[in-house]
Specification:
Blueprint (H helix, E strand, L loop, with lengths): L11 E5 L3 E5 L4 E7 L2 E7 L6 E4 L6 E4 L5 E6 L2 E5 L4 E3 L2 E3 L6 E4 L4 E4 L2 E2 L19 E7 L2 E3 L12 E7 L14 H31 L1
Antiparallel strand pairs: 1-2, 3-4, 5-6, 7-8, 9-10, 11-12, 13-15, 14-16
């Protein structure tokens, strides 16, 4: 039967003009559709988005997923597909994956990411493989990869980092500290200017005595 705006009573064991399907055939799921203030029953082969099929001896029903941002679910508390923009992880939906897990974009799932250990202590401050002879150097710390990611395409976080440091020993024992090239050039230029000035001053004095 077709009751105008109501759904066709296909698959119904009983149907009414006001309420649509009331009971469904054995293999179908009863779904109560709501449109504004009005609601009516339908008998479906599979439940719509946001619902899952709950089979009972009395009658199979479509029950709403109780998981936030879930598009389809296996049971009340386990989501199988999240809404657009959300990642699926252990039956839940997340905007971003939890710590220790990485986003697999093609499937919009959270998979086990690259697990790294704790940072080591900062190493010795050095420069050019020397721990003396310079004012500033670099010190490095590292950490190990404890568990490789489930997918090769998932990158691991950095396992080594360096920072600028001040050397504890400025001058190497038993060796001369060499002034940097720039400082040498400046000192040499200053010395040349002083010598030139002294020479010009001597010439001036000699000329002045001659004129007298």
């Amino acid at each position: 039967a077709n009751y105008g705006p109501n759904p066709i009573c296909k698959g119904c064991l009983s149907c009414s003009k006001d309420n649509g399907c009331i009971r469904c055939q054995h293999k179908l799921f009863f779904f109560l559709r709501r449109e504004g203030m009005r609601q009516y029953g339908e008998c479906l082969h599979s439940c719509p988005s946001g619902y899952y099929g709950l089979r009972t001896p009395d009658m199979n029903r479509c029950s709403r997923c109780r998981i936030e941002n879930c598009d389809s679910c296996f049971s009340r508390d386990f989501c199988t597909k999240c809404k657009t923009g959300f990642y699926s992880h252990r039956g839940r939906c997340f905007r971003g994956c939890p710590a220790g897990f990485a986003a697999l974009e093609e499937l919009m799932e959270c998979v086990e990411g690259c697990e790294v250990g704790q940072w080591s202590e900062w190493g010795t401050c050095s420069r050019n493989n020397k721990t003396c002879g310079f004012k500033w150097g670099l010190e490095t710390r590292t950490r190990q990869i404890v568990k490789k990611p489930a997918k090769d395409t998932i990158p691991c976080p950095t396992i080594a980092e360096s920072r600028r440091c001040k050397m504890a020993v400025r001058h190497c024992p038993g060796g001369k500290w060499r002034r940097p090239a720039k400082m040498k050039d400046k000192k040499k230029k200053k010395k040349n200017l002083m010598e030139r000035a002294q020479k010009q001053h001597s010439i001036f004095l000699a000329t002045d005595k001659t004129s007298q």
